[in-house]
């Protein structure tokens, strides 16, 4: 099946060809015709499935078709499509896709998020755009400063809606929804269909088409998974050994805390391994540079927290390492989904100490399979060591492994959530 056979206009087919794609992915095959029909859609898709192009391509075509049916408008271009994302990195990724696929079309777009100056974003909106990609907090800032008018939006996309709810954006989302027209096309995408997502979709979507291309919480089948048991004190040594002995050139490493990311990068540097950290205490410029250096091969290791890594899109990323298992089992699936994307093979390794055995059991229960265990010679764990409580990222403790319940996040922490008078600065400092 070709992209042209899905009903896309020649300009979009040409743009897809420019990107080097010839055959649509499963979610694109289902989503594109549905969106072109003007229907609301609820899409279930893990990362690496081609979801972004799955809504970007038909969104662009719908805007062109609706524009042709309406008389020319005078004055500033109204915002006609709004894409909400949970993180800056994902917003930038979606914006890049809009720009690339809309290259041959007379549509204007921009992206807005916190952590950078608001004034250039205001100026672009004042000049007028057809498509706006935004994180919720910064969007509300711009609305409050009368730089963004959402009253003419024809198409709304909520991308990674599950993560937006996890990060505490539900109140911001409701504020945004109150500013939008009742008559519009709404597309909601989520990696999981939790009760909260179903409740949101029931109030937001009208007779939606349901598309689900990945089983709920299913670990991607193109990823080889393995657990390396090791003492906590020897994890860094083992990681350096694996990188050096296997000559890995590109490794994404996950940790629970921002401090842990910084510490590991320094330790790896002492081993002669170049690395960079990406988390919410980094400025947007530093995060963008770290990701660019990693993609370009200037650093071998990118160390990230879960939320900061959301939206990272790296073609053919070969290795993901869970230096620390996540407190939430579902986050394991999101982590390893960064490799093995779009049909490519990938490898996910977890360095597991005695403190994390309960977390490992939770993960194996979720994915309904046992992950193979491989003890590396010279790094055999000391069986006399007793498990200790695991420190949560925000300083609290849980029992070893704990439960799968997500910790409550404060309104001034995580992502672009702070709503105080100085909320833009708060968001820049506190994004995870």
Strand line-up in the sheet with most strands: 3-4-2-5-6-1-7
The stretches of 5 or more residues where confidence is low (pLDDT under 50) are: 393-432
| Strand residues, percent | 5-15%
Mean pLDDT: 84
Taking Cα atoms only, what radius of gyration do you get, to the nearest Å?
Answer: 22 Å
CATH topology (level 3) name of the largest domain: Rossmann fold
Distance between the termini: 41 Å
Query: Could you say what the CATH architecture of the largest domain is?
Result: 3-Layer(aba) Sandwich
Relative helix content = 25-40%
Number of domains: 2
- C-alpha geometry: elongated
| Main pleated sheet | 7 strands, parallel
Q: Which structural class is indicated by helix and strand composition?
A: alpha/beta
Query: What count of helical segments does DSSP give?
Result: 16
Count the strands? Answer: 15
Fourth-level CATH superfamily of the largest domain: P-loop containing nucleotide triphosphate hydrolases
CATH class of the largest domain: Alpha Beta
Give structural notes.
The structure is a single chain. The chain has 432 residues and is of the alpha/beta class. It folds into 2 domains: 4-212, Rossmann fold (3-Layer(aba) Sandwich); 223-398, Rossmann fold (3-Layer(aba) Sandwich). The protein contains 16 helices and 15 strands. The chain has helices at residues 10-18, 26-36, 51-69, 88-101, 119-127, 136-144, 161-166, 170-178, 195-204, 235-246, 258-270, 284-296, 306-309, 329-336, 357-367, 423-430, and strands spanning 41-44, 81-84, 109-112, 131-134, 155-158, 185-190, 209-212, 223-229, 251-254, 275-278, 301-304, 319-322, 346-352, 390-391, 397-398. A 7-stranded parallel sheet has the order 3-4-2-5-6-1-7, sandwiched between helices. A 6-stranded parallel sheet has the order 8-13-12-9-11-10, with helices on both faces. Strands 14-15 form a two-stranded antiparallel sheet. Strand 14 and strand 15 (397-398) form a beta hairpin. Helix 2 (26-36) runs parallel beside helix 3 (51-69). The longest helix has 19 residues, at 51-69. Mean pLDDT is 84; it is low at 393-432.
């Amino acid at each position: 099946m070709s992209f042209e056979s899905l009903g896309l206009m020649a300009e979009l087919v040409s743009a897809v060809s420019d990107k080097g794609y010839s055959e649509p992915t499963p979610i694109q095959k289902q989503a594109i015709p549905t969106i072109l029909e003007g229907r609301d859609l609820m899409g279930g898709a893990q990362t690496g499935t081609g979801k972004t192009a799955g809504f970007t391509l038909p969104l662009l075509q719908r805007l062109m078709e609706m524009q042709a049916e309406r008389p020319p408008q005078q004055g500033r271009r109204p915002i006609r499509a709004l894409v909400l994302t949970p993180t800056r990195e994902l917003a930038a990724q979606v914006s890049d896709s809009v720009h690339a696929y809309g290259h041959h079309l007379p549509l204007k777009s921009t992206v807005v998020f916190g952590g950078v100056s608001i004034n250039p974003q205001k100026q672009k909106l004042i000049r007028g755009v057809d498509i706006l990609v935004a994180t919720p907090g910064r969007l509300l800032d711009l609305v409050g400063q009368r730089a963004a008018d959402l009253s003419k939006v024809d198409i709304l996309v909520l991308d990674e809606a599950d993560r937006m709810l996890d990060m505490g954006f539900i109140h911001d989302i409701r504020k945004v929804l109150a500013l939008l027209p009742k008559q519009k096309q709404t597309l909601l995408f989520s990696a999981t269909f939790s009760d909260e997502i179903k409740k949101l979709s029931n109030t937001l979507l009208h007779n939606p088409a349901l598309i689900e291309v990945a089983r709920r919480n299913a670990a991607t089948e193109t990823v080889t998974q393995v657990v390396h048991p090791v003492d906590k004190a020897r994890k860094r040594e083992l990681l350096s050994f694996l990188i050096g002995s296997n000559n890995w050139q590109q490794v994404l490493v996950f940790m629970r805390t921002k401090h842990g990311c910084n510490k590991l990068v320094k330790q790896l540097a002492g081993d002669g391994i170049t690395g960079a950290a990406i988390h919410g205490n980094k400025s947007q410029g530093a995060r963008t540079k770290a990701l660019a250096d990693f993609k370009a091969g200037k650093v071998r290791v990118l160390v990230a927290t879960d939320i900061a890594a959301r939206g990272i899109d790296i073609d053919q990323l070969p290795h993901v390492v869970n230096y620390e298992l996540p407190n939430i089992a579902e986050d394991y699936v999101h982590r390893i989904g960064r490799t093995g994307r779009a049909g490519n093979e990938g490898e996910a390794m977890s360095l597991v100490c005695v403190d994390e055995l309960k977390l490992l059991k939770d993960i194996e229960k979720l994915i309904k399979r046992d992950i193979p265990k491989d003890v590396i010679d010279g790094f055999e764990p000391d069986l006399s060591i007793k498990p200790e409580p695991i420190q949560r990222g925000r300083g609290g403790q849980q029992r070893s492994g704990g439960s799968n319940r997500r910790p409550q996040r404060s309104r001034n922490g995580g992502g672009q959530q702070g709503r105080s008078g100085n909320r833009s600065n708060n968001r820049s400092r506190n994004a995870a």
